[in-house]
Amino acid sequence: MVTRLINQFLDAIKKRSLFQHHDIKTFILFFVIGIGLNLAIASCTPSNSANAPAQQPQIPKLTVLKMGHQKGMALLNILKAQGSLEKRLQPQGISVTWNEFSSTAPLLEGMGVGAIVFGGGGGTGSVFAQAADKPFVRVAASTSSTRSSAILVLEKSPIKTLADLKGKKVAFAKGSSSQYMILRALGNVGLKYSDITPVFLTPAEALPAFERGDFDAWLIWDPYTAEAERKLPTRLLADNTTVFGDKAATESPAFYYASPDFVRDYPDILQIILQELEKAGVWSRQNYKDSAQLLSKLYKVDVKTMEIVEERGGERKVLAVTGEVLAGLQRMADAFYELKVIPKKIDVSDLKYNWIYEQKS
């Protein structure tokens, strides 16, 4: 092929008499050298043929781990306060940043836009997020205290039973575990979601509004439950156990969440986070007064309130995402769909949204 190109080029030059004979030889020499260089370069270029091995994208080194937390997820807050995750990751050159969120729904929104890659919160928020096709993965679950979530009324309120909530204003954080709790609580006494007027407020917004009497009942979780009970004259209308019975610990579990990219690219770091959370759980169970001291500073809540929270904090185990753990969440999702609270029916066991135990490396 190269010889043919040279001959064609030589004939064209001779016909046009552009060069003298010795000039032609020189030009051909350079032309051949040029072709040889082109062939050599081409031989070094990766082939695009189907037989060539696929080039795997280079995973960038993780230098900053973006963590999310909220009040009520004690182990994440203990992790933040103790700095144990930072110490564990420092030898790998990874720093840790923390963003606080008011509840699970905004936390998962933040995960969707890249503000965080790991966080934790109630399972209810994940049902809303999955129904809206938001990107997240449930990577572990956490059993909840059987007394941490409650339905409170002011002591002077005429409301004495759950049935008395009919026609009343009931406040809770939208997309939180409290929204599912009110559904089940109403159902237990033959009422429907439409029998109340929902008032969507974050916990921080709701506390002063509750004291003013802007609404009739408040669904909330610790430490806000304990804080309201200590600071205000309140009456407990119901709690986890009242509403869910013997399944209170697992019917509405909290979850730890991670972004899909983080799960795919950094499973080793994910394992480290879960290991440190497990250690924090053991420490808090064995040292609840010390845990209360630590969290009171972080939450800016008095120590006596936090001692109540920590004493009734439950086992706080970090659980693998299993079918049993997801069963209660599926009942929640089905209930929301039937009431048109979410726009479509979802399968919470969809592997796109869960890091199942068998998938761990």
What does this structure look like?
With 361 residues, the chain is an alpha/beta fold. It has helices spanning 2-16, 21-44, 74-82, 84-89, 104-112, 123-131, 177-188, 203-212, 224-231, 240-244, 248-251, 260-265, 267-286, 288-299, 303-311, 323-338; strands spanning 64-69, 95-100, 118-122, 137-142, 149-154, 169-172, 197-200, 217-221, 234-239, 254-258, 318-319. Strands 7-6-8-5-9 form a five-stranded mixed β-sheet, sandwiched between helices. A four-stranded antiparallel β-sheet has the order 3-10-4-11. Helix 1 packs antiparallel against helix 2 (21-44), helix 5 (104-112) crosses helix 6 and helix 14 (288-299) packs across helix 15. The longest helix has 24 residues, at 21-44. The chain is globular and about 65 Å long. The two termini are 53 Å apart.
Q: How many H/I helices?
A: 16
Please state the overall shape, judged from the principal axes of the Cα atoms. Answer: globular
Please state the structural category.
Answer: alpha/beta
N to C succession of SSEs: HHEHHEHEHEEEHEHEHEHHEHHHHEH
* Whole-number mean pLDDT: 84
Alpha-carbon Rg, integer: 31 Å
Q: Sheet with the most strands?
A: 5 strands, mixed
- Proportion of residues in extended strands: 15-25%
- Give the total of beta strands: 11
State the share of residues found in helices, binned by percent: 40-55%
Low-confidence stretches: 12-53
Name the strands of the widest sheet in spatial order.
Answer: 7-6-8-5-9
Distance between the termini: 53 Å
